[in-house]
TrEMBL record:
It holds the Pfam family Formyl_trans_N. Gene3D superfamilies: Formyl transferase, N-terminal domain. Pathway: Purine metabolism; IMP biosynthesis via de novo pathway; N(2)-formyl-N(1)-(5-phospho-D-ribosyl)glycinamide from N(1)-(5-phospho-D-ribosyl)glycinamide (10-formyl THF route): step 1/1. It catalyses: N(1)-(5-phospho-beta-D-ribosyl)glycinamide + (6R)-10-formyltetrahydrofolate = N(2)-formyl-N(1)-(5-phospho-beta-D-ribosyl)glycinamide + (6S)-5,6,7,8-tetrahydrofolate + H(+). HAMAP family: PurN. The keyword Thylakoid does not apply. This is Phosphoribosylglycinamide formyltransferase. N(1)-(5-phospho-beta-D-ribosyl)glycinamide binds at residues 11-13. It comes from Methylobacterium dankookense. Catalyzes the transfer of a formyl group from 10-formyltetrahydrofolate to 5-phospho-ribosyl-glycinamide (GAR), producing 5-phospho-ribosyl-N-formylglycinamide (FGAR) and tetrahydrofolate.
Length: 203
């Protein structure tokens, strides 16, 4: 399975995927890291790891349709089978998402369906939840709403601020995302319509 990782920033989840995919028995190969921000720190980290990188600056495109078309063309040129979003901060057009239906996953820093969107750690503290975490889900046109592949929970501790909570969650993100990618790329999990179907040994 040929995988592209889409990033916009530091790329710590990207690094965890690249490292996991180095294992000989990992069912996916990271063939491309693509960023909508040329200055994203993660691009340099990917290049250091010997992965092909590319920047497609969204500011060079007049609208979402033309940016998404350029992105789609690059992914297809690289013969990508599966797309992993890892801190990719652009909203896609429905047409782009439909073209990758069942073949695009995202990691989100909350226990979905709670706290879609940004500022998830501050909002979790504001809401007073005692458990927080992260979710890997299939991407659908509605933001952070797709069928769930895997989740990990962390406790909220007295005295947490958004940064301390984020630090606890990201540790789990780095564990969860490679595990979820292995399930999807290994065919243990798949999307059928709007439901996720798990193999007996993956559930
Ligand atoms: C992660 O918390 C991810 O879940 C969220 O943005 C952050 C990206 O961090 N969507 P990184 O770029 O992977 O370090």
């Amino acid at each position: 399975t040929r995988v592209a990782i889409l990033i916009s920033g530091r790329g710590s989840n990207m690094v965890s995927l690249i490292e996991a995919a180095r294992a000989p028995d990992f069912p996916a190969e990271i063939v491309l890291v693509l960023s909508n921000r040329p200055e994203a720190a993660g691009l340099a980290r990917a290049a250091e790891a010997g992965i092909a990188t590319q920047a497609i600056d969204h500011r060079a495109y007049p609208d979402r349709d033309s940016f998404d078309a350029a992105l789609d063309a690059e992914l297809r040129a690289a013969k990508v089978d599966l797309v992993c979003l890892a801190g990719f901060m652009r909203i896609f057009t429905p047409g782009f998402v439909e073209g990758w239906a069942g073949r695009m996953i995202n990691i989100h820093p909350s226990l979905l369906p709670l706290f879609k969107g940004t500022q998830t750690h501050a909002r979790a503290l504001e809401a007073g939840v005692r458990l927080h975490g992260c979710t890997v889900h299939y991407v659908v046109p509605e933001l952070d709403a797709g069928p769930i592949v895997a989740q990990a929970a962390v406790p909220v501790r007295a005295g947490d601020d958004p940064d301390s909570l984020a630090d606890r969650v990201i540790v789990q993100e780095h564990r969860l995302y490679p595990a979820a990618l292995a399930l999807v790329a290994g065919g243990k999990v798949r999307l059928e319509g709007d439901r996720v179907v798990f193999d007996a040994d993956a559930a």
